[in-house]
Amino acid sequence: MNNKRPTIATVAAQAGLSVATVDRVLNARAPVNPDTADRVFKAANTVGYFAARLIGERIREQRPSYRFGILLLATAQAFYANLATALGEAARRHDRANISCHFDYVTDRAPSVIAAQIGRLASQNDSLAVVSFAHPLINQAVAQARAAGIKVVALLSEIHTGSDEPYVGLDNHEVGRTMGWLLAHSAHARKGSIGILLGGHRFLGHQARVQALGDYLKQYMPGLRLLDAVINLDNNDVTEEATLDLLERHDDLRGLCVVGGGGDGIISALKQLPRQRDLCTILLESTERSREALRQGVATVVIDSQPRLLAQALIDVLVDLQDAEFDPVHHRIHVPLHIMTPENVRD
Questions:
Q1: Fewest beta carbons less than 10 Å away: which of 111, 141, 249, 322?
Q2: Domains of the chain
């Protein structure tokens, strides 16, 4: 049994590198390629080298440090809390930079207030990720930040039309078409009305979802009629009241879709009914409440944007943009959506 203490030579052999290279990493004698330094660190951990922790500290000292500002919506839904947690974890795990995330929340949706928030975040951070809608004042604030050298990534919903800005989120056109397919195959009727609850008309992502949903139904299921979208401001209480109103006014209601936030309001409304209606109910985001609704048969489908994948993609894009110009191939990331049903729901 070999009880010899691992040495630099042991680490070098495990990493497939020279002793001199391992020595440079350990003692910071000269710059080393980050990938090489990471190989040394992993090898040191594998063989149980006593200075593995020191190597990790040396690597962290040599990484660039970035401060990212993240502007999210302040809502009661659990999604944004889950996303903020996932972003913090992704920042801590990143192996190419030391990253700190600083969060701010939209509590007042007045464009001038959001524009001021973007301006403050731009003055305090190296780059920004912003959940917002399109408006001249907001667009101007984003343009001013970019003119000052601050990279701004649109998160979840694009801020500008077209594909000329960094973006991380779902493909909102795909989300809408998927909702249409699910309604066509799950509404148990070829005719009837479909209720839509919308965060706001100014969110380009929400617009894209509703447009794509309507286009799909017109093409494949014209008997299912989209009602005028009800603005719910991503608010659960507003959504609950609006859902009850839709159910009362439309006897032929065959489906309910929430396009932004507020899904908990639909759940609360449906649980108040004396008997379960034959509805296809589509919610967004996997939360404890939406998963429970699936198990209980209150919700038909949950479309989840996978916050952990979203967070990792966003951190990667923000880091990459520190040293790269915008490239629509690499800096417009569509995270794959995940469809959850009662048969595959899990915590």
A1: 249
A2: 8-62 (no CATH), 66-169+307-335 (3.40.50.2300), 172-304 (3.40.50.2300)
